[in-house]
Amino acid sequence: MGSKGRTAMEVGPDGVALITIINPPVNSLSIDVLQSIKANYEEALQRNDVKAIVITGSKGKFSGGFDITNIEGIQMGKGAQPKKGYISVEIITDLLEGARKPSVAAVDGLALGGGLEIAMACHARISTSSAQLGLPELQLGIIPGFGGTQRLPRLVGLTKALEMILLSKPIKGEEAHNLGLVDELAPPDKLVNTARRWALDIAEFRKPWVASLYKSDKLEPLGEAKQILKFARVQAQKQAANLQHPLVCIDVIEEGIVSGPRAGLWKEADAFQQLLFSDTAKSLVHIFFAQRATSKVPGITDLGLMPRKIHKVAIIGGGLMGSGIATALILSGYPVLVKEVNAQFLQAGMDRVKANLQSRVKKGKMTQEKFERTFSLIKGVLDYESFRDVDMVIEAVIEKVSLKQQIFADLEKYCPPHCVLATNTSTIDLNLIGQQTNSRERIVGAHFFSPAHIMPLLEIVRAERTSPQVIVDLMDVGKKIRKTPIVVGNCTGFAVNRMFFPYTQSALLLVDHGLDVYQIDRAITKFGMPMGPFRLVDLVGFEVAVATGIQYLENFPERVYKSMLIPIMAEDKRAGEKTKKGFYIYDDKRKARPDPAIKKYIEKSQSMAGINLDPKLMKLSDKDIIEMVFFPVVNEACRVLAEGIAVKASDLDIASVMGMGFPPYRGGVVFWADSFGAKYICSRLAEWSRTYGGFFKPCAYLEERAAGGLSLGHEGG
Ligand SMILES: C[C@H](O)CC(=O)SCCNC(=O)CCNC(=O)[C@H](O)C(C)(C)COP(=O)(O)OP(=O)(O)OC[C@H]1O[C@@H](n2cnc3c(N)ncnc32)[C@H](O)[C@@H]1OP(=O)(O)O
Description:
Elements: E1 6-11, E2 16-22, H1 31-46, E3 52-57, H2 68-75, H3 86-97, E4 103-107, E5 110-112, H4 114-121, E6 124-127, E7 132-134, H5 148-156, H6 158-166, E8 171-172, H7 173-179, E9 184-185, H8 191-203, H9 222-239, H10 245-259, H11 261-275, H12 279-293, E10 313-316, H13 320-331, E11 336-339, H14 343-362, H15 368-375, E12 378-381, E13 392-395, H16 401-414, E14 420-423, H17 430-433, E15 443-448, E16 457-462, H18 468-480, E17 484-489, H19 496-512, H20 517-527, H21 533-540, H22 542-555, H23 565-571, E18 584-586, E19 592-594, H24 599-609, H25 615-618, H26 622-642, H27 649-660, H28 669-676, H29 678-692, H30 700-707
Parallel strand pairs: 2-3, 3-4, 4-6, 5-7, 6-9, 10-11, 10-13, 11-12, 13-14, 14-15, 16-17
Antiparallel strand pairs: 1-2, 7-8, 15-16, 18-19
Helix pairs in contact: 1-3, 4-5, 5-6, 6-9, 9-10, 10-11, 12-27, 13-14, 14-15, 19-26, 20-26, 22-23, 26-29, 29-30
The structure holds 3-hydroxybutanoyl-coenzyme A.
């Protein structure tokens, strides 16, 4: 690890030493920055002209926390881990908080993780009202390691501290002030001076000298605290049964309350060092960087292109997808036109958008006033006349090639020449859609996931002739509507659907061989997916599942497993959650219950498949189920990579996490696969392929990686 970041210290005539963290873009605390803070403190404490210290961050940001590249380096054995307690006890507690001269933090922008932990060790905190303060470490699979588990409960009380830490949920300066985490609010231009004055006031005993670590007035009495911790454990287990670190975090907090904050600090240091090397932390750190890497697309984002301003967007089709996309856009302030074919459909579409917004109002996430303002951004239309000043169109009609071709030919006539023409198709070839136009360089895929205003992923599909500028424009809109855009190539299913097609396929194959539907779903949800393949088919609807199946059969006949189970059930009007009956039956609250009546369909499907029940498969362990369901997904991910549909493996990790709910703490599908190794996966697939057919056949890329002993995720191993 190269040297990264520094601090600067300047002593003013008022006797205040101002220490500024300088490590763009977020002033993260690299080991170098921390060493430099230590050196500054040692100097400030020695100098007679320094009475007090203010610590702040350059360019309007206090600090985004411990440098995550340092964490990754330590995990990979490329950097030494500092001695236990060196930073949290020696520097932050004994040197900074225990100093004979008071410190005040001047917080603007953000104080996250280690950033907030340093601020909390100061004797007071001044913040802007908009600054974000939080301890999001759990999102990285670790716990706060610079004393945050001890100081936050003492500053804001246990209940609030647990909420902020367990949910990794930052709060704004304003709320922090109300809670007592921040002592005074100041506008950005007065922040440092207010902090200077406050620091001198402490030094000269006009304000109290508070060491947060020993505060106890906010802590609940011991009996109550234990109850709160017990409840938090139950909640943490309920939310993510596979995760250990939230429980470890609660133990560490408890230690500080029961045995005193210093004991708590040492337990925190122990736990931090251990958790850093856990598979969960490695996976989540990988996801952190993989998510940011999605915005770096070779040949597109490295050309120096600036996104053009999109003033107005039009959506064609007010169905489930169209209304969801429209909702996402107006929520981020884009004026939107929705076009439908008749007044009745248009009204239904507008009602759907309204319902999406109203559900936010009901949940207290949106005020009535904001609702009115947001809804006023949308306008329904029945023709293309008002398309003359739109900068982007997103078509979201049914999956019919001729209809889409007609729409794009019309768009070319009505929209201005710079207008981006996007389609939300999930299966149709983009080149086909644009065939009847002269606008192929501005035709692009904008594949949203349902419900579009909630799901965080946006697949941007690049056809043969799509221009980089159009991609850059759409990436920017994607970011503005808070999606993570991944840029992929054009093929049936693109990256996400293509990777996850085998997910349901292998589940169907297993059922045809005698395995229980509900056992499969249980094993998969225990693994960490939000739902198993059968519950998912119910949600998506059997109609869509059959249509998708046909697409795949046409495009990849050699590796589609032809189960009749879904068509047989659909014929009997069991079409999924919409019809209240699918693989499960549903009550009015959408609660799914297993249904013994599906046995007859399964038996019929088995007999049509002409398969003898396989006693070996009927007794599969959860581990084997996971492998048989997910290794074909990995196999397809390898094909997607080999064909260049995805530019990097980490994009597929993000696609699997954000598009399909693959557990982020397993790092995404390719990262997870690498924990087994290509060789193991390839040999399992080859063995199943011999017994159960071509569906499992390992692809050439996987075979190559296995033979070369290479990982799947990293170029060249
Ligand atoms: C011991 C301690 O308790 C342990 C810790 O402190 S662990 C760290 C805790 N802090 C965090 O988890 C915060 C992580 N960062 C974030 O949530 C967000 O980056 C943010 C809110 C700070 C800024 O978000 P945003 O403005 O959207 O910018 P974003 O694209 O995410 O980040 C900008 C760049 O800063 C980098 N960055 C952000 N936080 C970083 C950190 N803590 N360390 C290293 N790099 C960081 C990103 O990787 C990105 O780099 P890139 O431009 O090369 O891709």
